[in-house]
Amino acid sequence: SSELTQDPAVSVALGQTVRITCQGDSLRSYYASWYQQKPGQAPVLVIYGKNNRPSGIPDRFSGSSSGNTASLTITGAQAEDEADYYCNSRDSSGNHLLVFGGGTKLTVL
Amino acid sequence: QLQLQESGPGLVKPSETLSLTCTVSGGSISSSSYYWGWIRQPPGKGLEWIGSIYYSGSTYYNPSLKSRVTISVDTSKNQFSLKLSSVTAADTAVYYCARRVTISRTSDAFDIWGQGTMVTVSS
């Protein structure tokens, strides 16, 4: 099995740029997907693949990957972006086993 | 549009089996493009993948839960189900079902989620 590591908490000033990272060996082989979760709600997919946004996700959300690290960047953070963010990817074994990062609580100041 | 809805008991006794069903509406569970998964979230904690199933019945389980988990699919009812045996208080969580789409050999994602259902394990 493998793990995905995220910083527990990150803060950003309103309108500034923030990067949330996810580290794990499996990210050398597989792209991460990123989910936003607000209190009491189900997670919502915000980024998948190399840098793809589902319909309805603002273009201030973007993704990137380098080596064993995947990143979610919010350019011009808004108050409504305050939420928990989770990365997810396949396990290093590559046989459809999956793993989530521990999550990052984003605070918009 | 496609929607997923979890259903099942909200309270399960310790040592018993937790059983949940996810009903897929607005689309077919038998599409070759998708897997179907269960994810859970204990109160105040992060997301944990439980397992996934393909419409053909192929299953993949979290190694940490594999000995207790069974996921099955009923294509005639457009449903898939989760059974988790020998539950303890540590299995108390919100349980989500979700659709997993494969974009490429190296990329997939849970693109549609159910609203989640809270299951409490208590006597």
Main traits of this protein?
heterodimer; A: 109 residues; mainly beta; 6-stranded mixed β-sheet; 4-stranded antiparallel β-sheet; 10 strands; globular; B: mainly beta; 11 strands
Written overview of the protein:
The complex is a heterodimer of chains A (109) and B (123). Chain A contains no helices and 10 strands. By secondary structure, chain A is mainly β. In chain B, the strands form 2 sheets. In chain B, strands 2, 4, 5, 6, 9, 10 and 11 form a 7-stranded mixed sheet that branches. In chain B, strands 1-3-8-7 form a 4-stranded antiparallel sheet, with no helix packed on it. Chain B is globular and about 40 Å long. The chains are: A mainly beta (109), B mainly beta (123).
* Terminal residue distance of chain A: 37 Å
Oligomer: heterodimer
Beta strand count of chain B:
11
Number of helical runs of chain B?
0
DSSP strand (E) fraction of chain B? Answer: over 45%
State the major sheet of chain B. 7 strands, mixed
Our Rg estimate of chain A from Cα atoms comes to: 13 Å
